[in-house]
């Protein structure tokens, strides 16, 4: 919004020319969402306590988690509100990527909110049924893919996947790309949800992924940088870096209250939209496979659950003491903060490995 108000005035007051630059607006988006989340969080936590909206702890979970029972949840609203307001203020609202990602955020946030609402307020233990969540996520991904088919930012690469570390090497999936795109969005959304089991783990990992993809979106939207680095050029995608910067700022503010011992949990209200929108950004800037590296923590967490369930059903044995993987490390003696910090370290290493693909081709 500020771009549309102040930038046209730069002919009268030249300092307003700064609103033209994505880097300035991305930095401003970080600080705006950070301050908003720090302001909103105490107010929402107080209300959640008054309304007795607290976390329900699984009886078969780690014994140390029983003390978390009753901790306010649905805190994902803190991130959601801060992120949307900051993006609305600092992004270009005439950019189609801004519109797509904001609508996607609101849709996935609504799905997560309904799930938490049914579980915590209506006391339905299963919340929103899994098939309805999957349907909502899949429909969103399908609509976005169909839109990109008809209105591609770069028609040459619509159904192609860029292989990291291989220069100018693409695999054309054809119509199968539709199924891949749905799997990416649904998978990333639910993988973050599975990772959200320890204080600060999911949001800290999302911070790393968001800032990495903010850089990738900026480069993809910049004609000179994308050409020099050999990545798929996506005109207009730079505005996504403002959304991702706002996500990082809001997440950082939320982490202040979600760090061990957590004062609030994000719930599905936060995890579903955070993971899903990261997957959508990967689709929009044509860096789908890079997400497997940058978001490696989420990939491994999801695979650990799949492997555990498959092994138990096929062999009657578990391969881990408990799934997802972070609980396994808890049960072998790692403290919760140690698990979280070590996972963050791995996440940073994976992000650096992914960014090295910009030059190592």
Describe this structure in words.
With 361 residues, the protein is mainly α. It has one domain (2-356). 65% of the residues lie in helices and 2% in strands. It has a two-stranded antiparallel sheet with strand order 1-2. Strand 1 (160-162) and strand 2 (170-172) form a beta hairpin. Helix 4 packs antiparallel against helix 10 (267-284). The mean pLDDT is 94.
Summary?
With 361 residues, the protein is mainly alpha-helical. The protein is built from 14 helices and two strands.
How is the topology of this model organized?
Blueprint: H1 2-6, H2 22-50, H3 76-90, H4 96-121, H5 130-150, E1 160-162, E2 170-172, H6 176-195, H7 201-221, H8 223-229, H9 240-258, H10 267-284, H11 290-294, H12 296-315, H13 325-331, H14 336-356
Antiparallel strand pairs: 1-2
Q: Which tags fit this structure?
A:
2% strand; mainly alpha; 361 residues; 65% helix
As a whole number of angstroms, the C-alpha radius of gyration is 20 Å
Unreliably modeled segments: none
- Element order: H for helix, E for strand: HHHHHEEHHHHHHHHH
Helix-strand category: mainly alpha
Distance between the termini: 39 Å
Number of helices: 14
Helix content: 55-70%
Biggest sheet character: 2 strands, antiparallel
Strand arrangement in the largest pleated sheet: 1-2
The number of domains: 1
Q: How many strands in all?
A: 2
Q: How much is the average pLDDT?
A: 94
Q: What is the general shape?
A: globular
């Amino acid at each position: 919004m500020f771009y549309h108000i102040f930038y046209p005035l730069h002919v009268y007051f030249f300092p307003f020319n700064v609103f033209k630059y994505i880097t300035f607006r991305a930095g401003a988006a970080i600080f705006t969402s950070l301050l908003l989340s720090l302001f909103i969080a105490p107010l929402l936590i107080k209300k959640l306590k008054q309304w007795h909206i607290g976390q329900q702890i699984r009886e078969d979970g780690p014994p140390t988690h029983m003390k978390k029972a009753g901790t306010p949840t649905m805190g994902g609203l803190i991130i959601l509100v801060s992120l949307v307001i900051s993006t609305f203020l600092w992004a270009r609202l005439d950019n189609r990527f801004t519109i797509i990602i904001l609508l996607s955020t609101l849709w996935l946030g609504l799905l997560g909110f309904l799930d938490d609402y049914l579980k915590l307020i209506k006391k339905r233990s299963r919340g929103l049924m899994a098939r309805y969540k999957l349907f909502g996520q899949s429909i969103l991904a399908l609509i976005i893919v169909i839109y990109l088919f008809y209105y591609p930012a770069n028609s040459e690469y619509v159904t192609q996947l860029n292989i990291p570390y291989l220069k100018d090497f693409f695999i054309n999936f054809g119509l199968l790309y539709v199924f891949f795109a749905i799997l990416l969005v649904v998978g990333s959304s639910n993988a973050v949800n599975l990772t959200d089991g320890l204080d600060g783990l999911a949001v800290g990992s999302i911070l790393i992924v968001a800032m990495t993809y903010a850089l990738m979106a900026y480069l993809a939207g910049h004609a000179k940088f994308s050409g020099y680095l050999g990545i798929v050029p996506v005109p207009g995608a730079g505005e996504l870096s403002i959304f991702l910067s706002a996500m990082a700022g809001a997440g950082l503010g939320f982490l202040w209250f979600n760090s061990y011992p957590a004062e609030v949990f994000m719930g599905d209200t936060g995890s579903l939209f955070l993971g899903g929108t990261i997957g959508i950004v990967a689709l929009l800037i044509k860096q789908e496979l890079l997400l497997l590296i940058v978001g490696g923590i989420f990939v491994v967490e999801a695979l650990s659950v799949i492997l555990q369930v498959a092994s138990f059903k096929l062999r009657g044995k578990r391969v881990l003491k408990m799934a997802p993987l972070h609980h396994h490390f808890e049960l072998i003696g790692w403290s919760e903060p140690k698990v979280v910090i070590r996972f963050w370290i791995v996440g940073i290493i994976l992000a650096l490995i992914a960014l090295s693909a910009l030059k190592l081709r």
